Task: structure prediction
Amino acid sequence: MKDTDIKRLLYTHLLCIFSIILSICIPSFFLENFSILETHLTWLCICSVFVTAVNLVLYLIVKPNASSKRSSISYKVTRFLKCCIYFLMSCFFFHVIFVLYGAPLIELVLETFLFAVILSTFTTVPCLCLLGPNIKAWLRVFSRNGVTSIWENSLQITTISSFIGTWLGAFPIPLDWERPWQVWPISCTLGATFGYVAGLVISPLWIYWNRKQLTYKNN
Amino acid sequence: MRLGSGAFAACCVVIEVLGVALFLRGFFPAPVRSSSRAEQRAEPAAPEPSAGASSNWTKLPPPLFKKVVIMLIDGLRDDFVFGSKGVKFMPYTTYLVEKGASHSFVAEAKLPTVTMPRIKALMTGSLPGFIDVVRNLNSPELLEDNVITQAKAAGKRIIFYGDETWVKLFPKHFVEYDGTTSFFVSDYTEVDDNVTRHLDKVLKRGDWDMLILHYLGLDHIGHVSGPSSPLIGHKLREMDSILMKIHTSLLSEERETLVPNLLVLCGDHGMSETGGHGASSMEELNTALILISSAFERKPGDIRRPKHVQQTDLAATLAIGLGLPIPGNSVGSLLFPTVEGRPVREQLRFLHLNAVQLSKLLQENVPSYEKEPGFEQFKMSERLHGNWIRLYLEENNSEVLFNLGAKVRRQYLDALRTLSLSLSRQVAQYDIYSMLVGTVVVLEVLSLLLLSIPEALSNKAELEVPLWSPVFSLLFYLTLLVLSALHVIVCTSAESSCYFCGLSWLTAGGVMVLVSALLCAVVSALAKTFGDGKFLSKNPAHPKPRWSELDVLILLGTMGHVLSLGASSFIEEEHQTWYFLINTLCLALCHEIYRNCLLRDDSEPQQCPHVEEEFIRTAAALQDRSTGCDTLEPHGVSRSLTSLDTLRGYEKWMVLASPWVILTCCRLLRSLNQTGVQWAHRPDLGHWLTSSDHKAELSVLTALSLIVIFALVQRKCSLTSKVALALGLLGVYCYRAAIGNVLFPWQRDSKDISKGVIEARFVHVFVLGILFTGTKDLLKSQVIATDVTIKTVGLWEIYSGLVLLAALLFRPHNLPVLVFSLLIQTIMTKFIWKPLRHDAAEITIMHYWFGQAFFYFQGNSNNIATVDISAGFVGLDTYIEVPAVFLTAFATFAGPVLWASHLVSFLSSETSSGSALSHACFCYALICSFPVSAYIILVTSLRYHLFIWSVFSPKLLYEGMHILITAAICVFFTAMDQTNTKS
Result:
């Protein structure tokens, strides 16, 4: 593990944060009366698209694990399709979990689903980019002492912090402050976004501080 | 003395209950009282003030009305009369309000909006304390000065029909009465017919002066189907026709006697949007109040919005109207429009009487009453009044007299308003000293529990309790001395009354000995911990065991819940916290299971064996290596892997699916009862099931639930109790059919509804039988001392007896809660706790969490209104205090109690180690007493919060009850543990 790796990690993460900021700023030039709270669903879509695009581009440029030997077109296509299916499945999975947590079953379905989409964007998309459609690898990364590189380590941190952000985001809902952002699912999506950004910021720093202690199996 | 940690914890919780009781006594202040009791009030009425020339009017003014009829409709909120519903369903009342000789008001009730305190407020004019809610059930005789007692003393003949509460409040006051009981909420026609049937007869007779009618039907409809139900309209129309009947009969009588009568239509409290009451929403506080009399001016076309007044104002008005002295504790002011038609001298006289009474009450309750603005205003208007009287007696210029009279009247009204306001704000202060003593006891117990964690959760599960050494230590005597000195100083200098000072010296001394002994114990435990800490730091041989994710979650969840109690919204919506926590718990369990199952193949011996030690046990493990030898469970990850390895294919799939099944169950239960405040009005399955259109569905569901309950519970029972259980469950269905909740398939129309006493008693017999069999088995296991299975069976039988009792007491639509609770317990036992081999502490805390969640799944909330008091009357003919209180408490806390008893039977059957039960008892005590102690401190610091009465106080009562039940559970645990160690 070298410092250059950490630097690359930091730059990619900064780009991701930048993409989120762009998703807030750019639409207001094109769309009238765009704001995060009032046209929340539009923002969710735009943010999700931006973050996905940036993640894909970064993955193609940086190639953190340049491993796969078979690189025929058909293999890549099936892999890509598999990723898409996984993404959709994770959206539905999150949707189900939100309903289990008490989200309304029939009303506000679109809101809940878009919330699931944005959470999948923050968590599943980086996983798919880095690990591919391989559940075992995912489980390995998310269990204790399972990470094998700084990329996986940062993935672990950002994903967990997005989840924690979402989880904490549900707390203000019962409070009687009557603010516009307490409406389902705005506080949760904002929580997820803050968690994701926090994860992006924290993970390079954390890895940098702990670079002496971190030893990975493969390198 | 060495004590098992279970016994130690039980003792601690019992002491804590004492502390909490003391705190509660200090926290709920006694209401504003006049020092003179009702009997002693023979003092003459205040004479008219006079300046110089003496006035000859010293007697009470004569009554304004000959007869008074009070028609009290339970739950009559203001918009039922003044809103669109009133226009639609109460045409006669609307006519009277708009065009007739009447005065209409919106009377604002104070908390708690429950019937008995409201009746008291209406009749005494005082503000009953919050604690009156608790006494609501066995309303004792009202000893305070009130209108009814005064009327009786004045020789008025009073007749009463309606809610029994009145008969209990005013025994021997009525020459004729017929009480109806208010506990069969599902009946809303007969309660009112029982009142109305007397009406024709009574109205024809002329031998009474006061008639009180209390109609319960409207409130019952509200409880069953809410304020927007079509039944409300029917009921209002019925009430309207009754009002018309009374009014016409009074009018026809007036034509003969030429003396005006008074008809009062009022509500005691309102009705929330869900149909309950007890809290402080506007709908619950605002009630209609209409005074109708031919003495009032007609005001055609004068449609104003009714004025807002206080409910307590009625007592003073009634007293004036009947020519009685105003009740001494009344904080209300006269409703001036009622005397507007009288001559000015009388008007001023009435106002003066009221002001004198209020200022006297102020003098008795406020030390610095002379500085109160109301008192100054009163003195000034009294002086002016005297001047007016002098002018009047001198028969001065009429215009000057009139102008001065108007000024005096205005002054008096201002003074009355200010006095009344400052009195109702002056609900007596908190008894800080008692609160402090209670808090100190609770905190000392909590710190003792916290400090003894390492020892109590060690493998031996025993700890040294220094019982005698503190008694001889210097610290003990010093503390005792200081405390007694403090006690003397506080009690001799206290201005307001103090409960703890009122105790006898022996009791107070006992409490002080307890406080100082606990202090010594805490200090010695602290010293021991620090000594051990030094010892430990010397040999850092043991690696620090890491906490698993589950432990972190449990710790954070507990802390988070305690912190959330500081916000009123989180208390109102506490169910959301628990649902959220158990969902997260299930997902964490799911993660653990999947990791263990799926990663088995490629998990090489891991670098860091992560020890699945409960967070509390970490310290224990550190300390107890010397006694070492973890007999109860092997260490490391390997153990959970091996246990999962042995599972066959089908079971493995069940293990994988179980968290999702549990999550689905919880989601279904969540939509069964909407509770809390913000989302309580949402439609839920419970309301859908209980509506009368869906009786067939409810019957099928009930039958199905009972069958599933039998299937789930009977597995581990002996044959006798199996039969008893089956018959008992059958009896439950018969009971529900008898009270009209469900139907038999052969029964087409619902026949007449009975109380179902026989059926309920039938079930009670089987409950007692099963409990008795269980106890017998437990005793046998103690005597024979060889067979562990007998004990397991016995515990399970006690558990199933409780399940049967809960099935009987639950609301009809709540049987699925019981079913899902049993289902989740079975799934957790089979597929999660056994294969993953959690330790006793973790299992205890999970049980506690689920118990709390099920408390809310039942439809409870932190609001008094959701307590199902009808459960206290199952199988009883009349109200008998002890069983009624016991049954209500059990029905309310059925969730936590059932989970706790499942915990006992699970631990004693599954774990081989002897210390599991005492560990569990200790953890249970700790985790229950932690929120209580934190909440006591929170409430003390928030005691001037706006929502202290509506949100924090009910929660405090719930917490007090919870710690009491926890104490009972811990004692039961310890008893089981004792039999265990003996065998």
